[in-house]
Amino acid sequence: MKKDEILKALLKNEKYRLNYHLMPAKGLLNDPNGLVEKNGIYYVFYQWNDKECAHGAKKWGLYTSTDLINWEIKEIALSPDEWYETHGCYSGSGIVVEDRINLIYTGNVKNEKDERESYQCLAVENNDGTFKKLGPIIDKIPKGYTEHFRDPKVWKENENYYMVIGAQSENLLGEVLLYTSKDFKNWELVGSIYNKNDMGYMIECPDLFKLNNSTILSYSPQGLEPQGDLYNNIFQSGYVVGNINYSTGDSSWGNFIELDRGFDFYAPQTFLDSNGRRIMYAWMGLEETNHPTMAEEGWVHALTMPRELILLDNKIIQQPLEEMKNLRESKVSYENLLLENKLILENVNGDSYELIVEFENTGNNCFGINLRKSEKEELTIKFENEKLILNRDKTPFLDGSRACKIEGTKHKLHIFMDKSSVEIFYNNGAEVFSSRVFSSQDAKGIEFFSNSEILLKKIEFYKLGKFSYSV
Ligand code: FRU
Q: Which of 31, 104, 120 to mutate to test the pocket of ligand 1 (most atoms within 8 A of CB)?
């Protein structure tokens, strides 16, 4: 698709189109790629099949912005047209080297024998903002690994460049490999930095970064079995905190913690912006979905909102970026309301809003909020038996619930509803639930409920506006 067509499709007034999330104009979007800030401009590339709502020979689409609200649509940055990427310019990352964005990505090939080949490739920004492909910089799979070898994430530290790559060992176990380079051209394998053999049959989209002074390795494992409330989606995304020796690759890591508790979250990627914020975007979707946007509007999936990552007591907390406040259009607020049974508040409803609620003195009660409520529908977020639970059973098209354990008596929900998506931040981002939801257009109610008297200490409600797009 050319950028004028992209603009036209994004501006269509369609039922499920999102107001303030990046989404594909047509076809299928998956992973965020190549996230960088250069000279005050944020670059958000994404995996894109612009031809149909299915996986296939992926391209890299691109949106840019100076404020993360007003977006410029760019021409497609990478399309698979070389021998080393015949079946897709797969995921990868970006880094600014000598004032040019360098993209390192996986060239995915299915050869004549229908076997996979994987090449880690480089493309460098031209003066006009297009990208020049320089071909593979790693063209061999290291001994002991299969061709499921992809998603390079690069960074620079202490005058050296580093790269982590998602891999599968010949024993069919997920691992992460570390490479290093002094000149950004010649790359050497350091070794495997995650090989505990407890992360399924493949690890995709690794990322390695520092928060405070701790090293975080995040990744998306495939093949974890559900364990109670954990790992209930088809694939997972999470992180471990630990230590690594960059010269030898020796590392030690703590337990794997899921980054999101909702239904739709995968393949997150982070970058550091010029304000020193570690910002994460993820694919707000997963494999094997059948969303009504596919048949009705010809597009599927979106990126999450950008979130700032902070490390607190060795755990990542995620917070909506300050910039999102610029979407606020009107405010309604309440303090110290007693909630018993059910409560509906004037001017607190809609399908594009931010809602902040602080509950207190809650004891062991069951309480929560029904969002997107109509006579027949509701999307429920509730506290029950020391768990926070999101339930989609009473929404069209989708069902099921997701839950996580919580503690304490002060509970704050910060909810971002955007037409066909919801992101719920619990206690300043200690937990987040991200989900798509395809409520009917008239399902806009918000109902607070509790099985016994509790205090709604604070309620703030803002109608949220839309991103603007230009070419
Ligand atoms: C993750 C992923 C990556 C791959 C890309 C292809 O969703 O499978 O491993 O590079 O998507 O689109």
A: 31
DSSP class of 304: P
Burial category of 412 from C-beta neighbours within 10 Å (exposed 0-12, middle 13-18, buried 19 and up): middle
Q: Which atom belonging to ligand 1 lies closest to the Cα atom of 92?
A: 10
State the CB neighbour count (10 A cutoff) for residue 181: 17
Atom of ligand 1 nearest to the CA of 151: 10
Sign of torsion, CA 238 225 47 191? positive
Q: Is this structure's pTM higher than 0.90? A: yes
Q: Is the pLDDT of residue 290 over 90?
A: no
Residues whose CB falls within 8 Å of the CB of residue 248, separated by 6 or more in sequence, listed in order: 190, 191
The string of pLDDT tens digits covering residues 135-145 is: 999 999 999 99
Specify whether 31 is catalytic. yes
Q: Which two tokens stand for residue 365?
A: 């009660």
Give whole-number Cα distances, 9 to 14, 20, 47, 71, 73, in Å: 9, 15, 18, 14, 12
Q: How far is the CA of 202 from the centre of ligand 1 (A)?
A: 11
CA of 205 to the centre of ligand 1 (A): 7
Contacts of 294 (CB under 8 A, 6+ apart): 53, 300
State how far the Cα of 21 lies from the Cα of 303, in Å rounded to an integer. 6
188-203, pLDDT tens digit by residue?
Answer: 999 999 999 999 999 9
| 10 C-beta closer than 6 A to ligand 1 | no
- Give the Å distance between the CA of 399 and the centre of ligand 1: 25
Are 6 and 465 a contacting pair, CB within 8 Å? no
- The per-residue pLDDT for 363 is 85
Atom of ligand 1 nearest to the CA of 235: 7
CA of 31 to the centre of ligand 1 (A): 7
d(CA 221, CA 206): 9
pLDDT computed for residue 214 by the predictor: 96
pLDDT of residue 408: 84
